[in-house]
Amino acid sequence: MALFINQNKAQLAILGPEGNMKYDNLFRIVIKDDNGNSIRISLSFLLNSNLRKLLDANLQRGDKIEVQRYFEEQSTKDLFYPVMIHREDGPKDIGNLDTVTNEPLVKISGVITDGVLPSTNQWNSRQGILFLALEEWFPLTEERKSILDNGKMIEEEWTDTISGTRSVVFIRPLMRDGKVSELIIVQASLQQISEAFVAFLPPL
Q1: pLDDT band of 125, cuts 50, 70, 90
Q2: What is the DSSP code (8-state) at residue 77?
Q3: What is the largest CA-CA distance in the chain?
Q4: pTM
Q5: What is the rounded CA–CA span in Å between residue 16 and residue 89?
Q6: For residue 139, cis peptide bond before it (omega within 30 degrees of 0)
């Protein structure tokens, strides 16, 4: 999902049949802790308000970092959701512990071995536009719901009423036992699509 967002300049989410969010991004880094365990570090809590700090930090494989917050599952401890990342030789911390209320904090450290980060200017307002589309489209109309229940994809032009941005929205149903199990929704700016076609077509 993260690679798709970066490569296609589009936003993507996976929803339940009723529009409940299941996955909205998989941007993450992977570290190997002092015990040799690989731990995925989700960036979902840092992208909106700390994107610039995240990009400026220029995290690379081999960097030693420390993260604080909690694991998704204490039993497996393989996915961590931080509110702050500290790099040993970094000038500034990414995130802020003030965003944590009464949650008990967990602190882990390790060396970055892999990761997928958003491209410059790729996140910012575009993800917000996707959320506006979701608010407007869900709950689905009976007509759209019928199309998806039949396993067909919806493709419609949509205009954000706040900024006037014109986009195309695709919703593809994932079927299981004849019923919709998940919905993949993709939103892309029509301006970006137009620019892509102009760049691709050879000059006359």
Answers
A1: very low
A2: -
A3: 64
A4: 0.56
A5: 42
A6: yes
